[in-house]
Protein: ThiF family adenylyltransferase
Amino acid sequence: MAFPPLVQPVAALSHAEQTRTARHRVLAGFGDVAQRRLAAAHVAIVGAGGLGSPAVLALAAAGVGTLTVIDDDEVEASNLQRQVMHRVTDVGAAKVDSAVRVAAELSPATVVRPLRARLNADNARELLAGADVVIDGTDTFPTRELVAAACEALGVPLVWGVVQEFHAQATVFWSAPPAGTAPIVLADLYPPDAAADTPSCAQVGVLGTLCLQLGSLLATEAIKLVTGIGEPLFGRVLVIDALRGRTDEVPLRPAAAPAANTAPEPARAAGVPVAPPAHPADTAPIAQLTPEQTLSAQRSGAVVLDVREPVETARGVIPGSVLVPLAEVLAQPSDVAFGRVVVVCQVGMRAQRAARALRDAGVEAAVLAGGIDAWPHPTVPADALSEAM
Structure:
């Protein structure tokens, strides 16, 4: 769905800025007015790493007037494979300093507010106050939940993305969208603590080029919200599989399915959880099975459904498993033609998402707690199994 622009345009651009942004200003449906809206906009980017780096580059180049960049970390050599805003000579320096430098080199009219601070429950709302849009480029779910809570309290749209290994997701959350539109927030996609066991990129790695792809996509979503062009990823989750060169779109609805609001929702205090989903199928916890319980369920007729990617299942799978990558399950959960399943991934997070989608589609679903990492029994080669639903 399209939304009205978030900001009023500045009166005029300088001659230098008109020249620099000429290719934007001749875009059909964009033009001079949208470019002037960008010049008036204030975008906050939380995290100056793999996602924040390309977002800063893209938004500065696009001509956004003010960028607030929040990060308390220093550049490390291992960052340089994906955090393209930094250089070898920046190792040991504050990451936010790189944002100041590259923005000035790309767009002298862009003002960068570098905030070298760790975002927490006490300061999140203060750090993000005044932004028209927030981009979450952080890399841990506890921090993402803090950013989301602050944006909900402030009523600011949150452009959200996550990347790990060869996979990525992106969407837009907004607790106070325009009248007639129901809010969608982080808890509608990930209930509280559902992603607590997510491994870090340091543990499982991340494809550097995918960070650039997703960071640029997040910047595009911010541009669409600011200028009112196109259809933001509100109510939709874009799922990227870099290994297969495939993108899928998964609908996202409010878990509680409230009536469409006619005015912005009142601000909520940072850290206060979103109201739980109203539907029993959504609220009942997903059963977490031990390895022994999983084996027992399998013997009694349940199907072990492994939602990892081929590069992961190649290392070994539970005997008798059926292999269906997560994106395929989420895209068509009703196609899973099994009455009872135990969902398996590497550590549990993806299995939890798949199980919820399957349960909403009428499939009895549980999860192997801790995933394959917690499996103490022998595995078998993946090529010995069926890959069909």
User: Anything to note?
Assistant: The chain has 15 helices and 13 strands. The domain at 285-384 is CATH 3.40.250.10 (Oxidized Rhodanese; domain 1). The first strand starts at residue 42 and ends at 46. Residues 208-227 form the longest helix (20 residues).
